[in-house]
Amino acid sequence: AQSVTQPDIHITVSEGASLELRCNYSYGATPYLFWYVQSPGQGLQLLLKYFSGDTLVQGIKGFEAEFKRSQSSFNLRKPSVHWSDAAEYFCAVGAKTSYDKVIFGPGTSLSVIP
Amino acid sequence: DAGVTQSPTHLIKTRGQHVTLRCSPISGHKSVSWYQQVLGQGPQFIFQYYEKEERGRGNFPDRFSARQFPNYSSELNVNALLLGDSALYLCASSSASGGGNEQFFGPGTRLTVL
After folding, report:
1. Is the pLDDT of residue A98 over 70?
2. In this complex, do B101 and A101 lie within 8 Å of one another by their Cβ atoms?
3. What gap in Å lies between CA B64 and CA B56, rounded to an integer?
4. Tens of pLDDT along B8-45?
5. Are B5 and B32 in contact (CB under 8 A)?
6. Which of B84, B18, B31, B22 is nearest to A100 (CA)?
7. What pLDDT sits at residue B29?
8. B39 to chain A: nearest residue by CA?
9. Is A19 in CB contact (< 8 Å) with chain B?
């Protein structure tokens, strides 16, 4: 069965510091992989996605993620965090089916210290 | 262009009641998916509708039902509400079905069951 784990429930970083959010997935084949961000009172916004090809994916807001098949991981990184990055981050895996079922991880809450 | 809209924003119901949540997709999008997000967890897939037909269903009881109208808007209905149905209900739209299409999420409807 497909599943997504995000080992870190909550992370606190200082503004300007680098960030890495971890994500591991379980899927029978190469999945579609996504990172979403959710700010309080807002819907989910897609940061980036991986379908195939280059394993290093660039997204919006200066985020990037690297797909590592051998580790079943899709970690999200940002070289320098801004206070506005404080939010909930969700890793998700999409099934390669005829419909758009997406399985989300439990999320990582990011706090940024000024 | 307007994004995905959902109504109402907030809703309070009592156990045993029925609730209807509404979603209008982005103009031109024919697919609508519904997700339930319980506090502190990632969203869980409930349904996807494409061209007015159900394309996918998550692991939810029959108390949950949905439909899509000719203008591609959608309703999610929940009967016999339980306390555990309290959650943020998210609607997402996409232009097609399957293949990992990018889904655009609305702000959600916060349902509280007392």
Report:
1. no
2. no
3. 13
4. 999 999 999 999 999 999 999 999 999 999 998 999 99
5. no
6. B31
7. 93
8. A106
9. no
CA distance A10 to A23: 13
Q: How many CB pairs under 8 A join A and B?
A: 73
Residue-wise over B16-48: b if at least 16 C-beta within 10 A, else e?
eeebebebbbbeebbbbbbbbbeeeebbbbbbb
DSSP string for residues in B87-107: EEEEEEEESSSSTTPPPEE--
- Residue A18 tokens, joined: 């680098």
Residue B25 carries which side chain, given as an amino acid letter? P
- Phi, psi (deg, nearest 5) at residue B84: -70, -5
Residues in chain B: 114
User: CB count, 10 Å around CB of B58?
Assistant: 16
Closest CA to B96 of A93, A97, A2, A91: A97
Give the residue-averaged pLDDT of A44-53.
91
